[in-house]
Amino acid sequence: MNGVNGAIRVLLADDEAMIRAGVRAILAAGQDIEVVAEAADGRDAVSLAQAHRPDVALLDIRMPRLDGLAAGEEIVRTVPGTAVAMLTTFSEDAYVARALSGGATGFLLKSGDPHELIAGVRAVADGAAFLSPKVARHVIDGYGARRVGRGATARARVGALTPREREVLGLVGAGLSNPEIAARLHLVEGTVKAYVSAVLDRLEVKNRVQAAIVAYEAGLVPDAD
To answer: HTH luxR-type domain spans which residues (predicted)?
Structure first.
């Protein structure tokens, strides 16, 4: 699925040409990332994703014809091999919640550090979840601390997992990719993928971000910093 020399193939969608040019330049600095298609609206983004089947679809939220949230949901549904990451200036809870529930595994802010953008694309391409620090704070607050009693519910949910599955879930919650989890647990990557898939099925969540939320609520992830 990767491009020439294993490059991460990216579809970039934003209705502003100057924004696309800037993001393209930032990603090019990563050297291992190749923008294979660009779209100025959500409908074209979906069509181009279906045609090029990129590793990552990087979508602006506010676009004409079809917004990035709806486009992302359609790409997740019709191009399962493509990871979806949202790129926006907006970090309101409603946008974050819908993006995550729609299957996005990345949420990046245009105002973020360029290195953060490159790291985010690499992470979601590698099967991990990546949220900008500001967005992560929204997620933890919105899905964790404000929901009294969810800790007990989450602990009950993870109680159905095997010890190894709980260990994998905790590392997913810490933001590790499959190769990183494999190295940490001395497993082959294929085995980790199987564990992650089993964990998602058992928890009845759509993606790694939602699984990470459960891991936080269940206390499987130590406090950062």
So the answer is: 154-219
